[in-house]
Amino acid sequence: MSFEPTVRPLLDALALKADGTDTFLVDPQIIPSGRVYGGELVAQAAAAGQLTVDDDRRIHSLHGYFLRAGDVHTPTRWEVERLRDGRGFSQRVVRGLQGDRELFRAMASFQVPTPGAPQHAEPAPDLPDPESLPTSAQAVAGTGVRDEAYWAGGRSFDMRHWPDPVYVDRGTGTDQVVWLRAFEALPDDPAVHRAALAYVCDYTLLEPILRRHGAAWSDDGIMTASLDHAMWWHADGRMDDWVALVQDSPFADRGTGIGRARLYSRDGTLLASVVQEGVVRLP
């Protein structure tokens, strides 16, 4: 399977088509695992909910559960239930299905921004220059691992790790930073960038667990699966400029682990916070 470094898979994944009232259809991105990418489901849930609220409100939080693996060759249907529309907030339940199989269910909340509210944000740590770090393509070049082409250019984003990535070489330490930037320019619509922010989070959120335990994605016997996803959007940014995921894992036991991240724009603005629990089994 070959891949080109392009944003087309991302944009296709966000091209939801109306299929009745508050129902939308979309074709999954084709990836080597044959299972629908989890970040795609989170991004589509956010996008589907956004299509059912007025333009004066934007998504500020989403809490969802991954219920079943999806098939990349089967269209996904998104059904939105309008729970409430108040003066300042709207709430939606969003369900992603293939046939009668529910893949993902989320509750999302949308807010009319309030001027004059108290403001503070955790400042960005001292981060390396993303352009000083090796690309994913450089990190896996010539390794011959199963997903080399996909990791190199199949994920719509130029991804650069600090410390070094855990694709092939086993990691060390407890924390990591992943800089991301879309391979090409994205539309100016802020809703696209909010959904793209959700899209990228599932790629690396469990990696600090692998790093802490000296494991790599290409190790025989590695198995991970996302269980749930909680995300809060704080500020608008552009995903075709550099965004840093500052990641760690506070806990792992009983076959599951927690990954969390703060997402910063290149100028240090805190764009979002994410927490996820997943199954992690090491050889």
Which range best describes the helical content: under 10%, 10-25%, 25-40%, 40-55%, 55-70% or over 70%?
A: 10-25%
Strand order of the largest sheet: 1-2-4-5-6-3-9-12-11-10-8-7
The count of β-strands is 12
Mean pLDDT: 96
Number of helices: 6
SSE ordering:
HEEHEEEEHHEEHHEEEE
For the largest beta-sheet, the strand count, sense and barrel status come to: 12 strands, antiparallel
Distance between the termini: 26 Å
Note the beta-strand portion: 35-45%
- Overall shape: it is globular
Structural classification:
alpha+beta
Low-confidence stretches: none
Computed over alpha carbons, the radius of gyration is: 18 Å
What report would you give on this structure?
The protein has 283 residues and is α+β, with helices and mostly antiparallel strands. The radius of gyration is 18 Å and the shape is globular. It contains six helices and twelve strands. The two termini are 26 Å apart. Strands 1-2-4-5-6-3-9-12-11-10-8-7 form a twelve-stranded antiparallel beta sheet. Helix 2 packs antiparallel against helix 5. A hairpin with a 4-residue loop joins strand 1 and strand 2.
